[in-house]
Structures are given as C-alpha cells and as structure tokens.
Design a protein that fits this description.
By secondary structure, the chain is of the alpha/beta class. 40% of the residues lie in helices and 28% in strands. Among the domains are: 60 residues, Dna Ligase, domain 1 (2-Layer Sandwich); 134 residues, 2-Layer Sandwich (Nucleotidyltransferase, domain 5), CATH 3.30.420.40.
Length: 346
Amino acid sequence: MSLISGVSDFFGLDIGTTAVRLVSLKGNGAVKQLSRYAYAPIEDKIALSDSRADQQRLASAIRDLVNESRITTRNVSVGIPSQRVFTAVVDIDNLPSGEMAKSIRYQADSLIPTPIDQSKLDWSVIGDSPKESGKVELLLSSVTNEFIENRLDMLESIGLNVISFEPDSLALARAILAPDATVPQMVIDIGNKSSDLVIVMNGAPRLSRAIPTGSETIIRSAVQNLNIDEKQAEQFVFKFGLSKEKLEGQIYQAIVGTIDLLVGEIEKSIKFFHTRYTGTKLDRIIVTGAASALPEFPLYVANKFGISVEIGNAWRNVSYSPEKQNELLVVSNHFGVAVGLAERQE
C-alpha cells in the first residue's frame, strides 16, 4: 500500500511482537548494499496493545532505535503483521484499469472480512487466471483504516515519513527468495504468536496465510506436558526440538502434537495450491524464524512431504563486507521482514 511513490531513500521497519527491527540499504538493482541494521527487544504487551500509553512506549522504542542506528533518512516502509491484514488471490474479469478498480471495490465486500468503508484495499494483477479464461488473478490485500491510521499517527509523532505499508509475509518472501525464481516455493516463518506461510511462483505470491500457531504455543505445550516453568521449557524446546534421542524423546513427545497442527495447516496449503495450479509441483520449502531455529523441524517437514527443505537467508539478495558474514547469519532468521521492506521497489 504505497502512500508516496518514487521515493528511493528509505529504510524498512518491522514492528514485531517481541522486537523492533530496521534495515537500510543503498544502491540500485537486484542486489543492494547493506548500510545499517539494528533491533531492540520490546514487550509483546506493547506491540499488540491499542492503548495510547502502550503506543507511546512503542513509539519511544522505535525513535531510540532509529537514533542509535544513525539512519539519516526519515522515509520508512513499514510491515503490517499478518494477524492484522487479509491477503488473498482472487479471480476477476479482465477489464480496463479504471473499470477494474470499480469492479474490485464492488466485489470486495464479499471477499474481505471487514466492512469496505472501514478498510484500505490494495491489489495487483499477477497473471491470467488458471481456472477461468477471460479472467485475471489478482493479489488483494485489505487492512482496517483504524489500524493504518493509528500506526501512521504513531510513526509521524516521532518524525518518520511513512512511504508504504506492506504485509509482513510479502516482504519476507522478497528477502528470502531469489528475485528471478520461477518454480513454486514456500516460505514458512514461525513467529512468536503465529506463523506466516507464503507460496511464490514466477515472482508473485500465489497463497499467503497466517497460521495461529507460533513459538509461544509450542513452548506452552512443553510447559503443560512436562510440568516445568516457561523459561526452562523455552530452553529445552530450542535445544532439543524434535529430536527423539535427546532427553529420551520427552521434548519431542511434549511438542509434537502442536507441531503436527502446524504441519497440518502446511499440508492444507500445499493441497490448495496444487488444486488451483494443476500440473505444478512445489519445488522446495524454505524455513526461517523459529522454523529454522527449532532442532529437526526442517527434517520433520522434509520427511512429511518428501520435499526439499532449506534454511532461509534474509541477506541472500544483499551485498555486505565479508567480515560481517558470521554476524549477519546469526541474526538472519529474525530479519527477513525488515530486509524485504528495505528491498521494496516503487
């Protein structure tokens, strides 16, 4: 959702549930050079709260991070959390752009979950419909006016100039995948509260979903099933994961039920994709966030679906000095959204 077009000097801002992250790139073309990156932890209470006091605390955390990073531009591209945005691929009659805009607004009432007069819509044509001739595929996103206006007010109050809002999942796919990738690929990012799933083919997202299972849910399973405290559960989950050998498989047994709920949603998404795009085959799954940090989760998914599973690299389309490589790879699974927002081209 572009608010200002043609701005080339900006940074990407990912306001997550447990941290705020920013990335600034410089240069043009497919591969840009890393200029700045930074993050600051925040309480999940303030990230998810709409109260004025919490919004002010969030604004202060962002302002401090921007100042500490010494980013000079005040133009910013901002991510929209998946829980706050509706994204879908829909088929629509192939009409001239003026008529299409009217047609989309007319049909959107039955497509989006919030009243159209209280929502901001954004769409782009991604190709011919695979189902109906004479129709085109449209990537449609909607978010409530209230959320956008509150976020805009909060960011403008600290002197930032928002040039665009974009769903986190779309920014994530841009960072994690090669820009010229044509084969169907899935990206899965397990976040704190939920997981983002996006399937991209021929450079365009064809399916985007937020699944309400995140690392918090997985840790809670360990707390309940092993009768241990949350801190200890988190340590065990991220040390032993889905290993059946470690601790006699106790961690595996404690969390596998929750993992299977997530894997079941991944399976539904794969089936939906193959049904809509007959004759295609998902080439690989790329995992990031907690999906890449949870031991043996990538292997578990690969064995389940018989598909190649890789660990994503948020910096794959970014150039940087070789001495920064180890430092950047350590934080790669946390920076996908911020990098993708900074890579956005108007």
